[in-house]
Amino acid sequence: MAISRAQMLKELLPGLNALFGLEYEKYEDEHTLIYETESSDRSFEEEVKLSGFAAAPVKAEGSAISYDAAQESFTARYNHETIAMGFSITEEAMEDNLYDSLSARYTKALARAMAYTKQVKSVFPLNNGFSNSYQSGDGVNLFTASGDGVAGGDGHPLVSGGKNNNRPVTAADLNETSLENAIIDIAAFTDERGLLIAARPRSLIVPPALMFTADRLLETTQRVGTADNDINAIRNMGAIPEGYSVNHYLTDSNAFFIITDIPNGMKHFERTALETSMDGDFDTGNVRYKARERYSFGVSDPLGVYGSPGSS
């Protein structure tokens, strides 16, 4: 349905002082602080996690050397979605509008709508990763820990038979203790054969409700909320070197997330960049505008992120 003169009566008459509602600022590309971005030229992408070797055993004198076998662990699949929207304006509405270029005004609104959808989709894994609404390639919840009692959880299974935990067993709110425990949990990550890996936090991602808490925890030189003269160990050690960032599209005001330095963790594939186009209909004179892009968001290695849903 085209936007017609009936939907913009005030803009057809003199005496209107201002048009407003489409000039709001938007939060810019917050997904870039969570995801690695790669281009794609296929309808979907798959990434396979490999298992290395177990710890080398002692070889007794005169005995044969031991041989180990490698294998594939699991596959993460990215199915690209097509996001598109448009609008149409009648020829008469464009002719009779007295105050502004309708096309320029509404193409900006279209771009804002496309950007909003992208940001919402980018945090879907984080917003839903504590339940089986979003699972990683190993078939369990994106955020899981052995003994957490959450359906679809119980830790990320390893080829060796062990588990990796990328959430606390007992859900905790963001504070000094929970953040230190998260850093300790990340340091305990192992590969598929149970060998320790040098995993470290990179950045803390929080919703707006936790930005003041995050600032106190990472930016003050002394411990927060105590009368002691202890140093802030997290800041002093540079344990989260890239600091914190606020993501305004997170839906849980208590949840917080840590992006780790594990490669091939959170991934964003861009299949087709944002494209805009317009055309006119000869019979009606209506002008149509559209925007379209294709992309996917997901996770290959779940050890690329750690999360806590908060205690409530």
Question: How many structural domains can be distinguished in the coordinates?
Answer: 1
CATH topology: phage-related protein like fold
How are strands sequenced across the largest beta sheet? 1-10-11-4
Structural class assignment: alpha+beta
Q: On the 0-100 scale, what is the average pLDDT?
A: 88
**Describe the biggest sheet?**
4 strands, mixed
Give the termini separation: 45 Å
What share of the residues lie within helices?
10-25%
Give a written overview of the molecule.
This protein has a single domain, classed as phage-related protein like fold, CATH 3.90.1690. The radius of gyration is 25 Å and the shape is globular. The strands form four sheets. The chain has a four-stranded mixed beta sheet. Strands 8-7-9-12 form a four-stranded mixed beta sheet. Strands 2-3 form a two-stranded antiparallel ribbon. By secondary structure, it is α+β, with helices and mostly antiparallel strands. About 6% of the residues have low confidence. The protein is 18% helix and 26% strand. Strand 5 and strand 6 form a beta hairpin.
Q: Could you outline the blueprint of secondary structure elements for this entry?
A:
Layout (H helix, E strand, L loop, with lengths): L35 E4 L4 E8 L19 E9 L1 E9 L1 H6 L5 H21 L1 H5 L27 E2 L5 E2 L11 H12 L13 E6 L4 H9 L13 H4 L7 E3 L9 E5 L5 E15 L6 E13 L5 E4 L4
Features:
phage-related protein like fold; four-stranded mixed sheet; alpha+beta; 312 residues; single chain
What's a quick, concise take on this entry?
This protein has 312 residues and is of the alpha+beta class. It has helices at residues 91-96, 102-122, 124-128, 176-187, 211-219, 233-236; strands at 36-39, 44-51, 71-79, 81-89, 156-157, 163-164, 201-206, 244-246, 256-260, 266-280, 287-299, 305-308.
